[in-house]
Amino acid sequence: MTKTVTDVVCPFCGTLCDDLEVSVTDDGKQILDVYNACAIGAEKFLHSQAKDRITRPRLQQPDGTWKEISYEEAADYTAKMLAGAKKPLMYGWSSTNCEAQSMGHEIAEMCCACVDNTAAVCHGTTLIAVQDIGLPTCTLGEVKNRADTIIFWGCNPCHAHPRHMSRYSIFPRGFFTGKGHKSRKLVVVDPRVTDTAKMADMHLQVTQGQDYELLNAFRVAFRNEWLPDVVAGIPKEKIIEAANIMKAGRFGIIFFGMGVTQSLGKNHNIDEAIAVTKDLNEYTKFSIMPMRGHYNVTGSGEVLAWQFGYPYSVDLTRGFPRYNPGDTSSIDLLTRGEIDAAFVIGSDPGAHFPISAVKQIAKVNSVCIDPHITPTSGVSKLHVPVAFVGVETGGNAYRMDNVPIDCRKVVDPPAGMLTDEEFLTMVRDRVKKLKGVA
Amino acid sequence: MAEYIIKNGFVFDPVQGIKGDKSDVAIKDGKIVKDSEISKSAKVIDAAGKTVMAGAVEIHAHIAGPKVNLGRIYRPEDKLFTCTATKGMERTGSGNSIPSTFKTGYEYAKMGYTTAMEAAMPPLFSRHVHEEIRDTPIIDEGAFPVFGNNWFVMEYLKNNEVENTAAYIAWLLRATKGYAVKVVNPGGTEAWGWGLNCLSIHDPVPYFDITPAEIVKGLIEANEYLGLPHSMHIHPNNLGNPGCYQTTLDTLNLADGFKAKNKFGREQVMHITHMQFHSYGGENWGNFESKATEIMNYVNSHKNLTMDTGNVTLDETTTMTADGPFEHHLTGLNHLKWANCDVELETAAGVVPYIYSPDIKVCAIQWSIGLELALLAKDPMRCFITTDHPNAGPFTRYPRVFKWLMSQKARDERLNTFKNADKVIGASTLSSLDREITLYELAQMTRAGPAKSLGLVSMCGGLKPGMDADVAVYDFNPDKPLANPEMIETAFSRAAYVFKSGVQVVTHGDIVSTGNKRTLWVDAKVKDNPQVMRDIREKFLKYYSVTQANYEALGHHFIPNPYALEVDATQV
Amino acid sequence: MAKITLNLISGRTISQGVAMEGGKEKDLYRKACGIIEMDDADFKKLGCWKNTNVRVTSPYGTVIVKAQETSQGPHPGVGFIPMGPWANQLVNPNTYSTGMPTFKGTPVEVEVAMDQPILLGVELVQKACRGEV
Q: Are the beta carbons of C18 and A12 separated by less than 8 Å?
């Protein structure tokens, strides 16, 4: 016999779908099938069951082989590394729960570490822009119930947030949007003809790297001022047409992604996108929302902010929080060679940082907490496999619109495996002793 | 638990009517007890020459949750020169108008505050609010979920379904672990979903076809039907605009004829918050003036109302409110960065930094109005001091507000040195008020009064045996002539000793224990109501973006130490 | 052999997401991310068949990937490598004081490298860190 766990929260992307159903064996040990999830989410649940999964911490030997050690030994190693380091970096946090983040921050404070999350390579520039100009936004249910104009700018939800459109933005029939997608206009801005762009009422194939120019042109178009014939590869007439679509709706929203945050201009691109949104509120109701990647990168920013005051790139080396992206941000700390120990959890910088930054992680003492084998674990001195948050343990996470959703435990982790929070608690207790903190 | 006896202090306790008599306060097992009940081993705290009061009670502040944290996230500049390093058991802290959670707890405790209410919790974000409350050490906290723009409430009240409204309130209080019924710009925030607003109590809400007046009356009725500890707590329509006092009077008038019905000793049916923002006359910023006299005449003569002031402290701060349209209006005035978040089916929130400059006439008049309100209050048990933290100023400025209220000299000095002093003086009656708030009245306005209004009078806000041992001792000798009003601000900024539920948490201004913090919430039981349960299921299926099973704030990681006030409305 | 110049961007794809969760040490991850998606017109310029191994070189590094016809085009002049270690051998690490590397818009040269192997994800990063690629 099997049983079905309902209302399961998907720990993959920032869409944080909470309507999954997972059928498990009666003893609650094995996942049999996953319903309602996208291909990626389903794979996350199913892969957790892999037979070749690493279940114990392992130390990398000089010859590149691995030696299995106990969690106690691993916690000793981690605590000594962090307590002894002059400027340790504690990076990641986006694929774990808020309780583990909180525990990690306590360690970071004692060790005077730099704490950073994956916003560093994702929506960090968005946060800088929000600090410049603010952010008119809303929850995803508002989009579902009210929105008639949807802009996807530099993002490709068909691939990166597969259920976003069916749950919130394009297809659902909400309170004031009873006709579903028929009541919505979709505009996509992307240098490629993405699968999202193929669905759009209008696709603006912007010249890569010229988002700022195009956003600026919209602001001109709203005011009916003079425009050149072509801006960022888009003819003037098309810009005016799109501007009129935006102004004509009753409730619109811009969703944006890495296309704007990672291209040159960076935070200034987002500044301008937010200014466009602000302008549109003179004509109608408009919101803007970053398409956050990891399922709990938003949560990491929230916990960091309420505990330390800043959403990412927090430097605690002086015993109090400081923040200055470009200076206290992971990539810069690494490429300048300032870090003497690297602790990575809930993220894979080995795969997603520029290789020159990864080389620095490989050079110093390093611990990688991750259920998977990853490029980061591959170049770390110690790899600590843990239970999957959202599959084998619960805990709070924040959706891309900052809505907190408590993840569910679906099955037990393999015998003897610890959760992030449990392992971090062991490290915290050891660091306390090493630092002589009561 | 340790026993204490706080000896020879000047005790001010409105609950027992003690007005500065020299006496002792005994503490045992977390409670205030009679002197005779403690053993000889009780630790003696020498309070000779000091002022002893109950721990203070904050009735309205924005200290935890999504909009507070949005403020932290988007204002790195608020941290400049305000960070405190890790020190003993004190975690590192940051921020001025929006301090980190740790700093929030420490600062309240150091000023002798032991209970605080988060004034606006978006229900969908209750887990976030509770995570921050969990990380705010020492002080007991509760949070008010917002109801004034909630789709359930508007649909029920449109048909006068008070019983259903009450059943929904009971359900939501339980789901969000909320404390009271909060109303912010009733109807106006829903209208903001379309970029609109309700500026009077008779403006109909788009689509829902109900008026703010109907929402307010219905919620008062539902609140009394349930017999909740606190009354309906309202931020009226038309906040912050010249001439808004008329809307305020219209709103106050809605409480007419209602009587409080509860077992908690509460007498009011409506609490109006940050009255300063609702007491403006004039037609524009040019002839902007105070209408505090009109407002206080009304409040003084209506015993079923309580209020708090919302004193402007003349600082740079961060405004934040569930009044979404107001923040949009404000960013248009000061052109500072605007954040907004509309919340499905429930509410919205906006955040805009604001600089209350003493050189700007309107800011100085706002400052005058806040003080005027408190000085015109005939019953200090119904008028409480707040800064609507952080909207009119950070809560850490309370000692300065006390100074202005307790010393005419201090406030006249401030008033007469404004850049536009003549115009400012002419726009309010402040310069003609010679009242100085006494320590006893201060204890009423910051302890016994708010505790009674919140329905907590048997628990906190006083020093009567049997109450929680929340005690603050200040280095302030009421017997000595006040050489300098600054002494008031200094003394109330850092208490000499603070006890929270019998645990000594502050000694000479330093944190010595993180105490036994509790989360206060109200567990209201109502008759089974299948219709409301069905409506809730339907709304989650069709309109919410989360499932009903993923909505409740539940579990140790959100509320490690809950304290429920129980209400039974099954027999109504 | 011909060399062409492209403007490189990276980003997510659904197969990248699935393969990532399936294991970054596995062949499926290499198949999903060890590729460059190019426009038909650029294949003609390069003068090679689809699904040929190519060497992509930027001012910041070099990597071998499989050249595939883009499924999300046309986008002449733009090359797309799904986000992952292959793309990150090439991207501009400079953050220009924003904290964010310049992941999108790296000028790269593409040339045919028919006989050279595409490394597995974990292996590629390990070798790069040891200075072996």
A: no
Among B135, B341, B544, the residue with its CB nearest the CB of A137 is B341
What is the full per-residue pLDDT of chain C (133 aa) written as tens digits? 689 999 999 999 999 999 999 999 999 999 999 999 999 999 999 999 999 999 999 999 999 999 999 999 999 999 999 999 999 999 999 999 999 999 999 999 999 999 999 999 999 999 999 998 8
B313 lies in the same domain as B189: yes
Asked whether residue B566 is domain-assigned, the answer is: no
Within-domain flag for B344: yes
C83 vs A: CB within 8 A? yes
**CATH number reported for the structural domain that contains residue B17 in this entry:** 2.30.40.10
Residues B139 and B209 both lie in one domain? yes
Domain, as residue range, for B469: 4-53+460-511
Best of B550, B551, B552 to disrupt the A interface (most A CBs within 10 Å) is B550
Give the H or E element holding residue A415: none
Q: What is the DSSP string of A336-377?
A: TT--SEEEEESS-HHHHS-HHHHHHHHHSEEEEE-SS--HHH
Residues from chain A contacting residue C38 (CB–CB below 8 Å) = none
Q: Give the CB-side neighbour count of residue B299, counting CA atoms within 13 A.
A: 32
Q: Is the pLDDT of residue B79 over 90?
A: yes
Whether C27 has its CB under 8 Å from any CB of chain A: the answer is no
CA distance B91 to B488: 28
Residues B78 and B64 occupy one common structural domain? yes
The verdict on a CB contact (< 8 Å) between A144 and B85 is no
CA distance A64 to chain B (A): 40
Contact C93 A156 (CB under 8 A): no
B564 belongs to a structural domain: no
For residue B563, being part of any structural domain is answered with no
User: Which of the listed residues B405, B425, B453 is the one where a domain comes to its end?
Assistant: B453
Peptide bond into A290 cis (omega under 30): no
Contact across the interface for A305 and B72, Cβ inside 8 Å: yes
Q: Per-residue pLDDT averaged across B183-195, rounded? A: 98
C92 touches chain A (CB under 8 A): yes
B403/B350 same-domain check: yes
Interface chains of chain A (3 or more CB pairs under 8 Å): B, C
- With beta carbons under 8 A apart, name residues in chain C contacting A121: 100-101, 103
Shared-domain flag, residues B138 and B162: yes
* pLDDT tens-place string over residues A138-149: 999 999 999 999
Buried b (16+ CB within 10 A) or exposed e, B250-263: bbbebbeebebebe
Tokens for A4, please give them: 């079905």
Which of C128, C55, C56, C95 has its CA nearest to residue A350? C128
pLDDT digits (tens, 9 = 90+) for B231-275: 999 999 999 999 999 999 999 999 999 999 999 999 999 999 999
| pLDDT tens profile A302-333 | 999 999 999 999 999 999 999 999 999 999 99
Q: How far is A209 from chain C (nearest CA, A)?
A: 7
Mutate to test the interface with C, among A161, A356, A377 (most CBs of C within 10 A): A356
DSSP track, B370-421: HHHHHHH-S-TTSEE---TTTTSS-GGGHHHHHHHHH-HHHHHHHHHTSTTH
d(CA B39, CA B36): 8
Region B184-194: what's the mean pLDDT?
Answer: 98
B162 and B32 co-located in one domain: no
- Cα distance between residue B521 and residue B537, in whole Å: 24
B255 and B325 fall within a common domain: yes
Chain C interface disruption, residue of A10, A40, A89, A158, most C CBs within 10 A:
A40
Domains observed in chain C: 3-129 (2.40.40.20)
**A403 and B124 in contact by Cβ < 8 A?**
yes
Closest CA to B368 of B455, B273, B279: B279
Number of folded domains in chain B?
Answer: 2
CATH number of the domain to which B392 belongs: 3.20.20
Smallest Cβ distance to A133: which of B337, B343, B557?
A: B337
Judged by CB atoms closer than 8 Å, whether chains meet at B545 and A250 is answered as: no
Based on the fold, state whether residues B368 and B419 are members of the same structural domain: yes
Q: Do C91 and A354 touch (CB under 8 A)?
A: yes
